[in-house]
Amino acid sequence: MRLRLNGPTMGTRWSVQCDGAPDTDAKQLHTTLQATVERIDAQMSPWKPASDLLRLHRAPVDSWVELPAEILEVLARALEVSRLSAGAFDPTVGALVDAWGFGAIRDEPDAQAIRAAGERADCPAYQSLELEEGAGRVRKRARVQVDLCGIAKGYAVDCMVEVLQHHGIRHALAALDGELRALGNQADGQPWAVALESPIAGLRSAHGVLELQELAVATSGDYRHFMQVGSERLAHTMDPHRAAPVRGDVASVTVLTPTCMDADAWATALLVAGPGEGLALARRLGLEALFLLRRAGGLVELGLGRFAARSASPGG
């Protein structure tokens, strides 16, 4: 029996396709999935004043803050990816996000706020936060503002998959915005077909198709969430080394990993790192990644792992 469930969360929608037993309680499954993503959002949202994330933001430096196990797990992984990527992925760019107009405080760039945020951005994320997961607490070692938007949606997808497994589902595709994870294959044995979106602003079309089986995928790019300021288009992803929105010829980066949390974080890290350092980093860590680069003749693909066969061919 094929079920299709969905609901609102994190400013977008979650969805699940799954092949369940005839006696699967679809209503209860939907209720549990909705509660799961709402719980993650309540902990990690930079938009909800009562979120655990903003409680951490308001806490004084060197003051321990007790946090739920889920947000501590995400923080720990975010700091590890930050360390491994030499800061390309940075969960402490919250002040920059707000200063450039992509957060909850303002809807356009503020030069004074950008300068102030940039001055505070010289401390590596993995040195500015201290976690004690066993004790369920964290403290800031510097005046930083945490932002988990580059990893929280992927983690929410992983939590959705756990819910599905708990309900005895063995064949499913869970998605939240551009982050997806396949649980097994389809009941007929076929992998789940997922569209790889074409990185063209204002146009929703497929660049290609991926087949997923027990695998997660996430894509980061500059073509969906951006702001137009005069003739310049500002991407929502921050480059912590420049204290500014990411820019360059990388239109998007797609990453395949076992967990969606890792795919989400690494897609962001590689987008920020760019085609040179990013490709070298992905190769060193054994990541399967596809870079789509804008060139005069169109899109060019650079890929690793199962994407390698597509590498350096014109996009289309």
Compact overview of the structure:
The protein is an alpha+beta fold.
Account of the protein in words:
The chain has 316 residues and is α+β, with helices and mostly antiparallel strands. It contains eight helices and 17 strands. It has helices at 26-44, 52-58, 69-84, 94-99, 111-119, 125-128, 152-166, 260-285, and strands at residues 2-9, 12-19, 65-66, 129-132, 137-140, 172-176, 179-183, 192-197, 206-212, 216-221, 226-229, 232-235, 238-239, 244-245, 250-257, 288-295, 298-303. The strands form five sheets. It has an eight-stranded antiparallel β-sheet, with helices on one face. A hairpin with a 2-residue loop joins strand 16 (288-295) and strand 17 (298-303). Helix 1 runs antiparallel to helix 7 (152-166), helix 3 runs parallel beside helix 8 and helix 7 (152-166) crosses helix 8 (260-285). Mean pLDDT is 89; it is low at 312-316.
